[in-house]
Specification:
alpha+beta; Uridine Diphospho-n-acetylenolpyruvylglucosamine Reductase, domain 2; Uridine Diphospho-n-acetylenolpyruvylglucosamine Reductase, domain 3; Alpha-Beta Plaits; 4 domains; 8-stranded antiparallel β-sheet; 19 strands; globular
């Protein structure tokens, strides 16, 4: 129920175009794209400027109404979905889609939070530059969401996460004030670097409205290979070989279990197996360079030759053109969608030290199979930075609801194993609602108290995306 007077104040702040009242249009704002999380809202507003965002936040604060910032709503942990009370206001940034400036000399781009990631990539490319963040959802996720979860993607190995790619932010604070930190400086030693408080905070400290992001020289040559391996240890060994020989040219190193590939081969349009034999693991390796003819195919072939000499690789193919490169990436990027055809998918996004990946996989697989004989383990991810998406599908011919009913138990197996290897239960998806409470068992208590202290400093009334990230006391 909307408090008396709030609707009028919101309409005054954003205009009729910025206030969503049609019940037929509300659904997309009140649940996530998987329909895994849903809620209700007192109102849905779509500000068109930073000043309008500030007016909305100020009005909600004065009425004691919580605000739930929302970008592309492509998250996996319910971080952008309101609760069921119907007393929260969803603040969508989907009208704030301006590219404010591109500076090729300073190698920066300034964009509003609602700009879709792919649009940032295209704006950079139009100036002969590269914005390197790349995700499966890049056609629909927004920069605000990428910042709020400190997104990583496939290029972290060379370019880092959003935390590394961000120079400055503009943020509306919980009291409606605007912090203008939109500075395109790479060196600024003037005290606390406040932007890092908001990156990864999932909207619990303020609403990110714009950002200055780093650009890089455009990539003009690539080499891509698909490699078959006998074990996760072989994948780590191959990573060491390629990194030692190729250095910073190594921009992608993606691992996939055979179960992952099987799902794509079964359900992916046009997907085909590249080798005659079945192998337990596969890796997609990609090199890139700013030179148009950098000899990357030869360099990658030299690395693979070393891998064969050391009995690390079982088979390999180097892509012979853009169509084959796309096909190889299709095998990797099609995993999540293909898994949806196999019943419920219990998703986990964890990270451990790269050197610990073989031991972690062996221990976790063993524990899961002991708990659920026949469970199908879909393991894939960015092995170069230790990030694995450890997804679980039910045994063949078993019951969907019974499998969903064991979600907490199976997650605990994955998280306990992750913790035993000094890892993190969230590498890039965030905590949201899904991991809000369980994080208390895996993060140091004093660290959580420090986080709460920061939250209380910025948002003492707990009106900014409450119920996310921080567990209840």
């Amino acid at each position: 129920m909307t408090p008396p007077g709030l609707t009028g104040r919101l309409r005054e702040a954003v205009g009729d175009a910025g206030l969503v009242t049609d019940p037929g249009q509300l659904g997309g704002y009140l649940s996530d794209w998987r329909n895994a999380w849903s809620g209700a809202a007192a109102a849905v507003v779509r500000p068109g400027s930073t000043d309008e965002v500030a007016a909305v936040v100020r009005a909600c604060g004065e009425e004691g109404i919580a605000v739930v910032p929302q970008g592309g709503n492509t998250g996996l942990c319910g971080g952008a979905v309101p609760d069921a009370s119907g007393r929260q206001v969803v603040l969508s940034l989907d009208r704030m889609r301006r590219v404010r400036a591109v500076d090729p000399v300073n190698q920066t781009i300034t964009v509003e939070a609602g700009v879709v990631l792919q649009a940032v990539q295209e704006a950079a490319a139009a100036e002969g530059c590269l914005f390197p963040l790349s995700l499966g959802s890049e056609g629909s996720c927004t920069i605000g969401g990428n910042l709020s979860t400190n997104a990583g993607g496939t290029g972290v190995l060379r370019y880092g996460t959003m935390r590394d790619l961000t120079l400055g932010l503009e943020v509306v604070l919980p009291d409606g004030r605007i912090w203008n930190g939109l500075r395109g400086l790479r060196k600024d030693n003037t005290g606390y670097d406040l932007k890092h408080l908001f990156i990864g905070a999932e909207g619990t400290l303020g609403v990110v409205t714009a950002a200055v992001l780093k650009l890089f020289p455009a990539v003009r040559s690539r080499a891509t290979a698909w490699v078959a391996l006998g074990s996760a240890q072989a994948a780590v060994d191959l990573f060491g070989i390629v990194r030692a020989l190729c250095g910073d040219r190594l921009t992608g190193f993606e691992i996939m279990s055979r179960q992952s590939v099987d799902f794509v081969l079964r359900h992916g349009s046009g997907a085909r197996d590249l080798f005659g034999a079945v192998h337990p693991w596969y890796v997609l390796v990609e090199l890139s360079d700013t030179l148009p003819d950098a000899g990357l195919d030869g360099l990658l072939e030299a690395a693979l030759a070393q891998a064969f000499e050391r009995d690390v690789a079982a088979d390999a193919v180097v892509a012979a053109g853009s169509a084959q490169v796309a096909a190889l990436w299709g095998l990797r990027e099609g995993i999540s969608e293909a898994q949806n055809f196999e019943g419920p998918s219990l998703k986990h996004d964890v990270t451990v030290p790269v050197s610990s990946i073989p031991g972690f996989v062996e221990r976790t697989d063993r524990a899961l199979r002991a708990a659920v004989p026949g469970i199908r383990i879909v393991t894939y991810g960015h092995i170069g930075d230790g990030n694995l998406h450890y997804n679980l599908s039910r045994p063949v011919d078993s019951d969907d609801d019974a499998f969903r009913g064991r979600a907490d138990e199976l997650s605990r197996i994955v998280y306990d194993s992750t913790s035993s290897f000094d890892g993190s239960i969230s590498a890039e998806h965030g905590l949201g609602q899904a991991k809000r409470d369980v994080i208390a068992d895996y993060k140091d208590g004093y660290e959580l108290e420090l986080m709460r202290s920061i939250k209380e400093l910025f948002d003492p009334r707990n009106l900014m995306n409450p119920g996310k990230v921080l567990p209840a006391r």
